């Protein structure tokens, strides 16, 4: 009899066996629907020898209900799912769910009805209709999507359909995307760039696993160079995946890609419309999407014939996912390349220590671009010692920084002030009684946002309107803002330079692709004099008139007990410094600090990256920290404080005693309450040779906890809160 084993999309269930009805032809990777009690589940046909389970006798097998009309998941993706689940101690179902991330796509082809404006005006205009008509100009989508987009109810849009202002269009679900043209507009590469590009082209042709680290200074043309590898994959009819750390960088990338290849690539991220995701997923699996640019979740897309993976800004910590399956997309990208037998390019001006170490060990091939493109020179970096030159009371910009900005304004050039803190002030308290505004769900202060007149928690999203009186003592107008956020710096700029045109750039202000596009256009057109921004502006952007970068508080990133604090600070400041003087005009960077002697700051000022990485390597080697040793974290949480503490104690009490693995804790997490859950942490430090995952599995496996307790394992953690 014909039977199959399924990986079902339910983490609570093990593998399940089913009978294959006559006439249904399946292979490993086929996606099927199976009966489960009275319900149905989606499953993936898996090699039974790779998915051990209890054998059910033939007679007890239930027949499958059907196969979904999508290509089977290919073996390299199945191996990736297994590896990710194994390495990050996650269930295979939760990893596989990331591969089947568009349920709409699984249902197969056909058409759907979308709507678009006809140009006609309704006989009766209302404010909502008016708003809808202007918001939907040039848009097309389902009624639900258009209602979201326009911020009106579906009923309003149905009214517009009846009035013939919106017309129905039948759209094929799985239209292929326009094909990028490899030879549309190739650049003239510099000799150094050409050499790097040739390596990428050869590697793509060779169709072998080849991890490469593209280590190029800011403005060296890393993108232009790896685009040649992309072009080669296209010539060979193969697909390409480009991972970006943030959706905010996508707009910029799309423009550059289109200029080089004639059409935009296929986009993939979680904030997309469902219909866009559905089409992208299907075309990725059928080959009608040749280049996908996306956030980390694109890594698990079912490519038909992948030829190259690029991870741009590969050092970025946002490649690490901190909920659900806690994986690092940079590392998983290299594994996918290995299973697919293709090259992977990790591009960065400030590579992660882990990546440099792999290059040093000869595992990654290192490709260098040591000079800026077009003769542009790296900016001058100057340290402003705030102990010697302090800003006036209540201000945050030192006189020489203000003077440098003034010069830029006079010359019509742009300045960028970097402070990695959203909002107006990180802490708000009552001047009268000292009351501090705290989040009710998290052990964190509320951050004042003056632009929206709200106090917000940056951990859970809780928001309240800024109160007029202190909730504790009732005193009016008594709120004191402590410390600066970007909004406060922008206010200071407005006071000093009332005529300067200032843009605040954070995830609050650039919340949609359109807004990002508007900002980039305005900055490029010279309509902005001063940009005040968080880490969002540190990377990717290329504004030729930007000649001054001011780092408002270089010491900020060094606070907190984070293992990678120094490295991250170095990367952020080096990246933001890299925005200055990228074209014909030379750039200058002023770094405000109270610790000019800190190794990070000294290395930045001296352009001595090697010295910084060496010192950092030594420190990590001594601490047995990555990449020389390994860390893992266990996070125990519950809405019930006592339950969380008890579960953590139980885990701590049964910790293994081994020579090569040390366990610290449990201790209350630095963020001891998050989203109304009490949290405890254990930290595990292992030698590289230790069987870390296996030890953790054997340790946690037998322990039982109340249902409300969550135990999460974070392998190679980045977050230490
Ligand atoms: N060969 C070339 N021909 C024309 N323009 C180029 C070439 N190489 C680079 N450029 C231009 O130089 C600028 C910097 O290049 P790019 O953004 O690729 O650098 P990068 O190394 O990715 O920088 P960063 O790491 O700072 O983001 C871009 O505007 C790019 O279009
Ligand atoms: Zn909160």
Automatic annotation (TrEMBL):
Cofactor(s) recorded in Swiss-Prot or TrEMBL: Zn(2+)
GO CC annotations, alphabetized: primosome complex
PROSITE patterns with a match to the protein in the record: DEAH_ATP_HELICASE, HELICASE_ATP_BIND_1
InterPro entries: DEAD/DEAH_box_helicase_dom, DNA/RNA_helicase_DEAH_CS, Helicase_ATP-bd, Helicase_C-like, P-loop_NTPase, PriA, PriA_3primeBD, PriA_3primeBD_sf
Keywords: ATP-binding, DNA replication, DNA-binding, Helicase, Hydrolase, Isomerase, Metal-binding, Nucleotide-binding, Primosome, Zinc
A single BP term in Gene Ontology: double-strand break repair
Domain Helicase ATP-binding residues, every copy: 203-369
Molecular functions (GO terms): 3'-5' DNA helicase activity; ATP binding; ATP hydrolysis activity; DNA binding; zinc ion binding
Record-linked Pfam families: DEAD, PriA_3primeBD, PriA_C, Zn_ribbon_PriA
Coiled coil: none
Source organism superkingdom: Bacteria
SUPFAM superfamilies tied to this protein: P-loop containing nucleoside triphosphate hydrolases
Sites where the protein binds Zn(2+) 1: 430, 433, 470, 473
Record text on cofactor binding: Binds 2 zinc ions per subunit.
Reactions listed under catalytic activity: ATP + H2O = ADP + phosphate + H(+); Couples ATP hydrolysis with the unwinding of duplex DNA by translocating in the 3'-5' direction
EC number: 5.6.2.4
Binding site for Zn(2+) 2: 439, 442, 457, 460
Function description: Initiates the restart of stalled replication forks, which reloads the replicative helicase on sites other than the origin of replication. Recognizes and binds to abandoned replication forks and remodels them to uncover a helicase loading site. Promotes assembly of the primosome at these replication forks.
Subunit structure: Component of the replication restart primosome.
Family (UniProt): Belongs to the helicase family. PriA subfamily.
Protein name: Replication restart protein PriA
Source organism: Croceicoccus marinus
Lineage: Bacteria, Pseudomonadati, Pseudomonadota, Alphaproteobacteria, Sphingomonadales
């Amino acid at each position: 009899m014909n039977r199959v084993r399924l990986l079902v999309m339910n983490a609570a269930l093990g593998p399940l066996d089913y009978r294959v009805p006559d006439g249904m032809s399946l292979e490993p990777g086929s996606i099927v629907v199976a009966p489960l009690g009275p319900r149905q589940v989606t499953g993936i046909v898996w090699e039974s020898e790779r998915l051990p389970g209890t054998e059910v006798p033939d007679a007890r097998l239930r027949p499958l209900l059907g196969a979904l009309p999508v290509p089977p998941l290919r073996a390299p993706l199945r191996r990736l799912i297994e590896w990710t689940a194994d390495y990050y101690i996650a269930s295979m179902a939760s990893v596989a769910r990331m591969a089947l991330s568009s349920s709409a796509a699984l249902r197969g082809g056909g058409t759907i009805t979308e709507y678009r404006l006809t140009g006609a005006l309704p006989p009766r205009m209302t404010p909502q209709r008016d708003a809808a008509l202007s918001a939907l100009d040039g848009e097309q989508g389902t009624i639900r999507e258009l209602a979201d987009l326009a911020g009106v109810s579906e009923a309003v849009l149905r009214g517009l359909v009846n009035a013939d202002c919106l017309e129905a269009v039948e759209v094929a679900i799985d239209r292929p995307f326009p094909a990028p043209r490899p030879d549309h507009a190739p650049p003239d590469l510099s000799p150094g760039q050409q050499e790097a590009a040739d390596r990428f082209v050869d590697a793509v042709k060779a169709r072998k696993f080849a991890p490469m680290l593209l280590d190029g200074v800011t403005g060296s043309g890393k993108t232009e160079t790896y685009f040649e590898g992309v072009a080669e994959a296209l010539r060979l009819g193969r697909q390409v995946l480009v991972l970006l750390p943030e959706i905010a960088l996508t707009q910029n990338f799309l423009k550059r890609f289109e200029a080089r290849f004639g059409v935009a690539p296929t986009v993939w991220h979680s904030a997309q419309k469902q219909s866009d995701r559905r089409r992208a997923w299907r075309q990725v699996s059928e080959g009608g999407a040749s280049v996908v640019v996306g956030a980390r979740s694109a890594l698990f897309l079912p490519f038909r014939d992948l030829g190259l993976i690029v991870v741009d800004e590969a050092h970025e910590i946002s490649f690490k996912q901190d909920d659900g399956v806690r994986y690092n997309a940079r590392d998983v990208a290299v594994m996918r390349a290995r299973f697919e037998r293709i090259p992977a390019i990790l591009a960065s001006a400030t590579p992660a220590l882990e990546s440099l170490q792999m290059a040093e060990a000869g595992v990654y091939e290192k490709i260098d671009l040591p000079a800026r493109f077009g003769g542009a020179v790296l900016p001058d970096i100057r340290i402003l010692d705030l102990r010697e030159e302090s800003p006036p009371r209540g201000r945050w910009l030192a006189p020489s920084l203000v003077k440098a900005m003034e010069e830029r304004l006079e010359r019509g050039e742009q300045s960028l002030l970097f402070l990695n803190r959203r909002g107006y002030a990180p802490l708000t308290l009552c001047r009268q009684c000292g009351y501090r505004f705290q989040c009710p769900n998290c052990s964190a202060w509320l951050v004042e946002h003056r632009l929206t007149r709200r106090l917000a928690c940056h951990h859970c999203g809780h928001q309240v309107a800024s109160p007029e009186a202190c909730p504790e003592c009732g005193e009016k107008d008594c709120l004191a803002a402590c410390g600066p956020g970007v909004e406060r710096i922008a206010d200071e700029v407005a006071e000093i330079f009332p005529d300067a045109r200032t843009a605040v750039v954070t995830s609050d202000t650039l919340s949609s692709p359109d807004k990002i596009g508007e900002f980039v256009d305005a900055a490029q057109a010279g309509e902005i004099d001063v940009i005040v921004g968080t880490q969002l502006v540190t990377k990717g952007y290329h504004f030729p008139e930007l000649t001054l970068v001011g780092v408002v508080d270089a010491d900020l990133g060094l606070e907190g007990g984070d293992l990678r604090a120094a490295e991250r600070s170095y990367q952020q400041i080096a990246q933001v410094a890299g925005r200055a003087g990228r074209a014909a005009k030379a750039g200058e960077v002023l770094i405000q600090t109270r610790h000019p002697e800190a190794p990070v700051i000294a290395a930045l000022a001296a352009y001595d990256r090697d010295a910084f990485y060496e010192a950092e390597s030594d420190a990590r080697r001594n601490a047995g920290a990555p990449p020389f040793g390994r860390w893992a974290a266990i996070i125990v949480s519950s809405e019930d404080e006592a339950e969380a503490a008890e579960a953590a104690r139980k885990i701590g009490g049964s910790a293994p005693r081994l020579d090569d693995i040390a366990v610290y804790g449990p201790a209350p997490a630095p963020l001891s309450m998050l989203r109304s859950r009490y949290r405890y942490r254990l930290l595990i430090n292992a030698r590289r040779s230790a069987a870390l995952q296996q030890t953790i599995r054997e340790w946690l496996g037998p322990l039982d906890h109340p249902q409300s307790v969550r135990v999460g394992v974070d392998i190679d953690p980045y977050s230490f809160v």
